[in-house]
Structures are given as C-alpha cells and as structure tokens.
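ok so I'm stuck.
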Amino acid sequence: MNTQIALYLVVLNFAAVLSFTMAAYSNLRKSVPAARPFGILSVRIGLYTLFYMFEMISIPLNVKEAFYTLKYLGIMMMPIGFVWFTLEYTGRKSQFTRRWLIFTGLICALVWLLVATNPLHNGFYSDAHLEIHQSFVIMAFQPGIVFYFYMVYLICLALICMGLLVDYFFRTSFYRRQQVLILFLGAMLPLLVGIYLLLNSTPWRNIHLISVAFAVSVPILSLGVFRYRLLDVVPEVRTLILEAMDDSVIVINRDGRIVDLNPAAERFLGAAMQEAIGVPLREFFPEWETLSREAQANERYETELEIRRGDAAKSLRLSSWKMSTWWGGSAGRLILLQDISDFRRMEKGLRQAKEAAEKATRAKSLFLANMSHEIRTPINAVLGMTSLLLNTRLSEDQSEYVQAIRTAGSTLLNVINEVLDYSKIEAGRVQLQEESFDLETCLEDALEMVAPQASSRGLNLTFWIGPEVACRLRGDEGRLRQILVNLLANAVKFTETGWVDLSVEQVAESGHEGQERLHFRVTDTGIGIPPERLPLLFEEFSQAGHEVSQRYGGTGLGLAICRRLVEAMGGRIWAESQPGAGSTFQFIVPFGCDGSKPAYPHLRGKKLLILTADENTRRMLESFAARRGMEAFSPVGHAQTLAFLADSHLYDVGVVDQHWQGDRGSVEFPQAWKYLTARGAPWLLLKQYGSSKIVEKDEENFTSILYSPIKFSQLSALLEQLFAAGSTQETEKRRAAGSSSNGMGEFSQRYPLRVLVVDDNALNRKVVLLFLQQLGYQPSGAASGAEALALLQSRLYDLVLLDVQMPEMDGLEAARRIRSLIAPEQQPYLVALTAFTFEDMRLQALEAGMDDCLHKPLTLDQLKKVLRKVSKQRQGKGLESENPMLTVPSSTILQELGEEGEEIGNLFREEIARNLPRLDLAMQTGAFEEAGEIAHSLKSACAFLGDQENAQRCGVLEKHTRNGHLPSEEWMSEFFQRLRDSYLKRV
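replied:
not stuck anymore, here's the structure
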C-alpha cells in the first residue's frame, strides 16, 4: 500500500470516526436547537464514509459491489437528515413538515431499492468492472438514468435547504447569523464537489472526493451547531472551573467508588487524589452509606445533614445527579457538597434578631394599647357628657360652646384612631375577616357616618350600585366600610358646595371562580388636587399641599391606611382630579359571592315615579328600583310631569324631592303640587339630613318622610308595608305606629331588658347609664367586678356592659367568675367595654366568656344595636327555655306573617339545608366557635318552623360548643341524621 492510498484511508477513517462521535455528542445535547437531526445526519455521513472506505480496500468486484450498495444506504438517508436539520434549525416547522420528510424518505428508499436490485435491471449502472486509477483499484461503471436522476434530485434538495439557510440568515439576530454562516460554509463544500463530479465527463471513474469534503465539513457543521457550548467540549476549561471551586465535587462510578474529585473534595475527605481514586466513597464519607439508597432512586437528589469531624460540627447541603453514558446507560453519580455552616449560624443570628424585634414590637403595641386606653377614657366622658348636655335646654351661646367642645373632642378621637390604625397596619396586625354581608347595608352605614358633616355643608350625598352586582358578598365588611368612610369623609371635608357620590359596579374581567371584582368610585365637586400631588396622595403623612393641610387639618394617614387595606384585600387604589373640578377616588377589590340578593315579592313589577331635579338622586332611586324589580319613571319637563300625575294608573308610588320645583316660573306648577295629594297613590317626601320641616300640614299629606342619603333597606321595608297593607288607611296606620315608636322613651318598651353597667370610672359609667335612661331603661351600676358579681348573684340581669380594665378584679376575670358561678339559666349576655383597639383584646374577651366586645367611646347607635340584638336573643330564649316551642306555636308566627308565611317558611328550610354541611365541616375541623354560631342559627330556624324537637337538639349542641364539652359521636350521628331526614329530602 503506497503513501497515497494510506493517506486517503486515514482521511476516510477520520471522517467516519468524527461523524459517529458527533452523532453521539448530539444525543447527549438534545436541548440544543436541531441537535437531534444533526446527529442523524452525522450517522448517515459516517455510514457513507465507512462503507466507501471498505469499498476502496476491497479487491473482488462482487465485494466492491456489495459495499457500493451499502454505501448508498448512507447516501440515501443523508437527504432526510439534512432536510430535517434545516427545517428545525431555521424554525420552519409546519403542518407540511412531516409530509415533506415522508415524501423525501420514500424517494430515497425507492432509489436504494433500485441500487440493491441493479443486477436485475441495470437501471442505476451497467458494465461494472475493475480499473486502476492513481494506484487505486476502483469499480468503474456506466451510469444509468436513475443515477443521473438521483444526483440531480440530491443537488436540487441541497440547494433548497441552502436557500432556507440564506433566508434565515437575514431574519435572525446578529450573533445567530455567525452560526448560520458557519453552517452555510460547511454545507457548501460537499455540494460544490458533488456538482463538479456530476458535470465531469467520467464521474464514475474518479475517486469520490465528496468523502474528503465531508471529512472537512463535519467539524465545520458541528461548530455551527454547538458553537456556544464550548465548555462542554473543552475539558481544560471545565477542569479549571472545578479546581477553583470552594465546594467539594466528587464523581463515583456505578459501584460507588471514587473516580474523580477536585481539590476542595480532597480537603473535605482528608485524602489526596492518588489515595482516593478507586476507593469506595463510604470509607471517607460514612454518611453516604445511608444517603446512597435514597439517592440511587432519583435522577437528582438534594438534602441537608449535620456531620462531626473531630470536635467540629458542620452543616452540609448535598446535591447529587445521576450520570449517563452517551447511549443512555448508568455511569455513576456526580456529588456536590456545600459547607453551609456559616450560613446556618447567620440564619440563627437573624432568627434571634427577628424574635428580639418582635418582642420589641409587642412591647410597643402594648404601650400603644395602654396609651390608647388612658387617652380614650377621658375622651369618652367628654363626648358623652357633651352629647347629653346638647339634649338639655341651652342658650344659643351655650349650645355653640358645647358643640365646639364636641367637635374638638371628635377631631382628637379621629386623630388617635388613625394613628392607632396605622400602627396596627404597619406592625402587620391587621387580620381580614371572612363573613357574608349585604353591600347595600355596608354603603348605607358608611354614608350615615358622614351624613351630619355633609348636611352641615348643604351637600347632596348619594350612592349607586350597578344592577350586575346581584348577590351577597363574602369578605371583610368592617374594613370595606372603614375605607369608604375615610374616602367619603375626605370628599366631604374638601367640598364646599355641590355633591358627593359613591358608585359601585362590577369589573368586566372576572376574578377567580366564585369571586366578583367590584369597582368603587367616590366622586365630589370639591377643590380638586394638583396633578403633581396625585402620586404622593397615598403616602404616609402626605396631603394635597401645605395650604390645604393648614386649612383643613388632618394627620395625612387616612389615605395611606386606605391604600394598605385595599392592598391587603388584594386590590388597588388610585385617584383622578383637576384643581377646581373635583376629585374621584377609585379602588378595585375582589369579593366572594355568597348567594343571591333577597327577593322583594311586593315590589316586583311596581311603578315608581321620581320627581327630583338632582341627577345623582334620580340615578340613586333608579338603581334602587332596578335592584327590586320595579319600573322607575323620571319625567322631563312640566308637561310630561303633569301627564304622569293626572293618571294615577301610571305609577304605584311616588317620591318627590323637598327642593323639586318643576319648571321654575311656570304658572302651572301649583297644579302639579296639588296632584301630589289629590290621587290615591302614596307619596314619599325626600328631605335633606337634619333639615327642618317644610310646613306641618304639607308633611301630613305625605305617606312618609325619607331623609337623604336614602337607606335602601328602610325604603324597601316601607314600600313592602305599603303594598302589603292594600289600602291607604292601613298604610297611614302603619306609618303612624312606626313614627310613634321612634321616640327615645319607647325604645325600652320595644326591647325590654334588665341592664347592668360595670365601670370603675364614674364619669364613663354615668354616661352609659344616662344613655340607657334616655332610651327608657332603669339600669343598675357597679364600680368593680366584685360588686357586679354580688349584684348578679342577688338578682337577674339580661345584659351586662363590663369594662375590661378595672383594679383588683378586671373585666376578664369577672367574666370568668360570672360564667363559673352563675347558674346556666341565669347567665346574662356579657359585652366587654374597652378602649383597646387591638384584635388581641377582642379575642381575650371572647376567650374569657364575653359574648361581644365594644370599643370606647361608646356611642348611642352602638348601644342601640347591642340592645336590639340582646333583646331579640332573650325573647328567643324565653320561647325556647324548658319546652320553648309549646308557648308560641310556629303556625301562629307564620300565620301572623300573612301571605308571606309560606314563602318565609321555605326560606328557613333552605337556610337549614345550606347550614347543615357547614356545621358538619366546622365540627370535623375543630372550629367549635363557628359550629356554635351555626347551631344557634339552626335552632332559631327550627323554632320558627315549629320543629321543637330539633330546635332543642340544636340548643344542646350550641351549649356544648360554647362550653367546650362536645357530645358523643353517637349523639352527633343521630343529630345529623334527624336533621337530614327532616329537611334535606324536602329541598
């Protein structure tokens, strides 16, 4: 064999080995774009060069023909690999890609079949014989038509792929273009050689220089594919990185013996590389014996462990990866050991610092709570006494002085409340409650709190709810009301004339399943805000400007509190404003949907006539009508108004604004005013909050008086009574009865209770006692917990208002003793009175046995709500004690409700069916307080339905959950079974 032949064989061998090597490497790097088709292409090139090498060194003609046929096996598969590679590399995948590849493969398979069966038809070549060409013994032949067809087909296919690469070159980024250029050059070399050989006069008599072209192009192509993965193919760089690492890197084989490690691992194991290679890892690292069992079952394994080396203890993080051979077999594991001892010590120090900070925060919170109590106690007396003093006969000057004292005290209390609220939010002590509530009631309560200030400025206060908000909400009603009151109070404070409007609508994009995202807007016609101040509005201690701060006062915390609360509820808040053109404060908050809104059977289909000149009031009443299923009419102009008034069949009830004047200057206006009382339909007069009467005889002509801001709940109840009564006379009787019962002295007759007030502060105690006396009660007072306990043991009380912070025996201890010493049937309803505003105090009061908790200073409205609640509960208990259901049969109660009795009975049954699963879940999860509340609700519902037996069982369960002594499982099973049999099968 001469040098020329030997050199050529070396080139062929190099090309084959390199091709198979790149194919194996491509299999390991499947994540690289187009790596898999490049590997298939490399296999095809390797097969071609390998069999061509065997063809060159073979002598017999039949052997050369066999290797020639096998050589074409690689040649035929190369087009598929190159087409697939080009499509994936350039991102040209489409629905036709698979069809194209299948078509290309079918053509190649057909051609190879013709090559393999050539002796039968000589379609590929003919006249095969041996010739010597430049010292090579080659197989010469006469090419057939299939040979030329396939060569042209290959060249055309290659040119198409090259065109795709050129197109991709101009579409991709600069750095990617460098790779495309390398690929283009690597593919051009065998293509140009193939074209040259095809155009040669005797292409079958020459040595195939394409093999040499492939030997050169394969490394060029691989560089184009894996150019940015050089770390994977340059072991020197990897070695440098591993040796420089501070973490220990250990490589073990399938038997767990060390095959490689870096210097950091040598230091950790305490052995040089020469000593460690080939030794089982467990001999240097005994912990691996245990860890290896779990690690072998995972591709990647991570854990932390503590080890001791001599007297030193170390914390380690161990990470281990399974290594695989290029064909997918197991090759051992790579282990990385990180010393995290310093990190753990730092973490421990941070934890201790955090605990110390939390302790300091608790101390600060306790200090704030104590200061809050000490400040609120005298303010309670100041505000209470001034309220009582205003109800006495005073001269004009005296009344002005007392009002000034009350205003200053209220301002001081607001400042304290804002500071304490902000401190709680800042300390992360705000806990959001999840409860079902009615949005209308929440908005009404918020508007009611700012109505006096709005009325004093002559502002019209309205609200509007979109008709798509049609269900009860689930969320924190108290925090929502706090946000609204803050925004409304701001709007009223900065608005001299005009109106303040609150609107709510559902956001178009829905939230999570079962949630509604509500968009709240508070709009006013106030002074406005400069654009440059808008981004700072919701920051702490920031206001619209220095002049505004001096003129209107305030702490600058209100809007910051609103922002914190809205964000805590999962929403966002922002403002829009122009100086002199008013402001709009908006926020979006998600709420859960908790059942549909209540039905109003007597209102559905009724027609409401609205006479008002104020657009916001009209919009508010139209919203009310839409949400009750009523039709609302707002006539425009005097003529249209008279047309409506002339025919009482066009409306069922009318609302007229006190300030409505029709078309001013019209001589026909007095006729319109006479129509208001000349027809049989009832009319309601809408007056501003706190406004004086028009003329007594005019008021007597109206069915009832409404005050702005209108309360939807009160208006609904009034209209339900009007339409249920069926006649104007009965309506007048109901209105007269209602108006007569609104007197302060009549309150105690409607809600009879025996009340005990316990407070060591004489002024605070006197304020509450005077409030109760104004409502018609004859309350008792006590100055200490011990005195209260003595009074309770000598006589019965329904309600005890118990101050928490008292000397000797505080309110919490007094509550515990009352619960333990007083007989169960004589237990009063305990309400804690406290100046502490933190949630912890409320929880402590409930745990001590209190039923409710009120914050000082106590207002008359708060007191009324508690009295109503306790009276209703006591009246219910009176019906249920001993054999409660027998005293007032449910049939009598439902019959008194008239035609609504059956509908209300169905609502009670639905409520029982809805609450049973909640009760079962609360008992299973240990939420016994919630279970007691649900049992109380079930007890009331069963009592109304006349189911005395189940009502008594619910009462027993309520008592057990309150005391913490739970019934047996057998009793609970029977309890649920009886209720399911009674109610679930009916619904």
